[in-house]
Amino acid sequence: LRKPSLSLRFYGLxxxxxxxxxxxxxxxxxxxxxxxFIVSQIHKDQFQLAKGILPPGMPGYDPKKNPYPFSKTxxxxxxxxxxxxxxxxxxxxxxxxxxxxxxxxxxxxxxQTQFKRVGIPxxxxxxxxxPNFESMLRTNQAPLFILxxxxxxxxxxxxxxxxxxxxxxxxxxxxxxxxxxxxxxxARAERDYLKRMEAYGKIxxxxxEDAPIVPMINHLFQMVYQPYVNGIEVNALGGHYIPMxxxxxxxxx
Length: 253
Prior knowledge:
single chain; 253 residues; 10 strands
């Protein structure tokens, strides 16, 4: 059994850290990463490619959304428009990770190579002690970092408010846009389901346009079970939410 979970792993671009306060540069970074190659070649398709902020299975998810397909040409163009043609005078960007696993290092090395091809200089850093890493995020000491977020409930608010509202303690990218805060607040209060989903569509579009993150992958819930096990029901929240009372075993004769 293989199913996307309500999760998003992304690269955060801290908007208080220069030069990442430059939106055009952040958009160039989004275009510079060949996510398909990383998912298929580095991770051997063990993850689902993320195209937006909302994961598959989440209300409001749009499978047609793909605002930043890999494009070296577009990345180079935006890099030039951001004031750093071919990366000239662009300060070295620090990429931080809280895991030093073999898979993480392979991905980060590939990211570094892809950035170098368009002229974006980077250095890799690892802080494997989570409290220290979290402290760095909360104090805006990690300009560019990798992070995974799992929704607590199947509602877009679990990602939009948590990661992007200026008053959220988990807004690690220091994203601040008053009109977006207002839209998120209104969506949270809206009781009409269709109107809420319409509002979240606008919210996602605004955030992606501002490019405070690079959406990378959605994790997959994967499970193997015997053919005599029946009644398994899995939703996007994963294994903890399997209704075990419905599971039954077919007796072999």
